[in-house]
């Protein structure tokens, strides 16, 4: 069993902790928070014996072999880099870091210290994502793709009321494209690789981050349109269109809950497979597999770098700047 520590005391950390336990590949060895009381409160109901409020102490502990990071985006790079250098395997919530330069540094550090760095992009590990990928040839040649994820943020009313939540704060390396839009970008790259051109537009909030936007990824024979928003809501399905038919993915694209194949005759076939109730279970297994094998997956590393490159291009085109971009 892999001794896992959790950084972050939010709902997504709880979901991953439960997935890790369900996989029977991990034990929850520790929880970290700058407030030790919050770490202890978070761990209630979990079989956890150690609590840390000092990151160096966590990285130095023999009681921890791997760490799940779900802190604010702006802290991912610093925390992951320190833990990798201290010999810990790291699974870090998306986005892996605030810019592609930081991602490259993290990947190099993982290789140098012979540990696993894993970006927590759950979509790619879901059974229905594999179904989607395997059925693309049935609608070939591909011509147009729409990947949509628009969800009104529960924190937007607070922002409009004058608060400054992390979700809409550039100091926390946040905004629509790196949050909800990440799933659209990463899904496209996981399916098709890096595009030859990126074109982006966005509506910027007064805080300096994007509230919503659109991205076109151009490939040699087709284009992918990405719609993302934190300030409006949509249940629109994602769609892959080819000369041989269509593939539909239910909203939200991140979960791949249902995939349908529609041929040019209009015959609809549900190709969905049964999936775990906890959508992070499959990625917990994938992380454990890499730790046991002693090697990172080269394709996943390349995907992380390519996604970081695209997100950076989108931000440069739309004028979203993070403090970490300086220098």
TrEMBL record:
Q: Which Pfam family, giving just one, matches this sequence?
A: GFO_IDH_MocA
Per its UniProt record, what InterPro entries does this chain match? Gfo/Idh/MocA-like_OxRdtase_N, NAD(P)-bd_dom_sf
Task: Tell me which UniProt keywords the record has, alphabetically.
Answer: Signal
Taxonomically, the superkingdom here is Bacteria
Q: Which SUPFAM superfamilies match?
A: Glyceraldehyde-3-phosphate dehydrogenase-like, C-terminal domain, NAD(P)-binding Rossmann-fold domains
Please name the source species: Motilimonas cestriensis
> Could you tell me which residue ranges the Gfo/Idh/MocA-like oxidoreductase N-terminal domain spans?
2-120
Which Gene3D superfamilies does UniProt cross-reference here?
A: Dihydrodipicolinate Reductase, domain 2, NAD(P)-binding Rossmann-like Domain
Name of protein: Gfo/Idh/MocA family oxidoreductase
Per the UniProt entry, the signal peptide is none
């Amino acid at each position: 069993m892999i001794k896992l520590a959790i950084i972050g005391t939010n709902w997504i950390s709880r979901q991953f902790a439960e997935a890790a336990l369900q996989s029977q590949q991990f034990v929850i060895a520790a929880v970290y928070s700058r407030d030790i009381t919050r770490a202890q409160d978070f761990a209630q109901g979990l079989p956890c014996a150690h609590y840390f409020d000092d990151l160096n102490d966590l990285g130095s502990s023999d009681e921890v072999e791997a760490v799940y990071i779900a802190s604010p985006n702006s802290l991912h790079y610093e925390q992951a880099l320190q833990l990798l250098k201290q010999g810990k395997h790291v699974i870090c919530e998306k986005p892996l870091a605030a810019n592609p330069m930081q991602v490259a540094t993290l990947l190099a550090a993982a290789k140098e210290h012979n540990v696993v760095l894993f970006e927590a992009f759950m979509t790619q590990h879901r059974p229905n994502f594999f179904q989607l990928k395997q059925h693309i040839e049935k609608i070939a040649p591909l011509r147009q793709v729409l990947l949509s994820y628009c969800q009104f943020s529960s924190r937007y009313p607070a922002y409009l009321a004058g608060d400054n939540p992390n979700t809409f704060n550039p100091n926390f390396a946040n905004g629509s494209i790196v949050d909800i839009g990440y799933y659209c970008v990463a899904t496209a790259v996981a399916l098709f690789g890096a595009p030859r051109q990126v074109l982006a537009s966005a509506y910027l909030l007064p805080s300096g981050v994007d509230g919503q936007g659109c991205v076109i990824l151009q490939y040699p024979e087709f284009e992918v349109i990405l719609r993302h928003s934190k300030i409006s809501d949509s249940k629109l399905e994602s769609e892959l269109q080819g000369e041989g038919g269509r593939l539909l993915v239910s909203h939200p694209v991140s979960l791949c809950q249902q995939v349908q194949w529609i041929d040019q005759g209009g015959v609809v076939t549900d190709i969905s497979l049964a999936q775990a109730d906890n959508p992070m279970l499959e990625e917990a297994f994938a992380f454990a597999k890499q730790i046991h094998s002693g090697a990172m997956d080269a394709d996943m590393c390349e995907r992380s770098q390519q996604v970081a490159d695209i997100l950076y291009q989108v931000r440069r085109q739309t004028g979203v700047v993070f403090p970490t971009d300086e220098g």
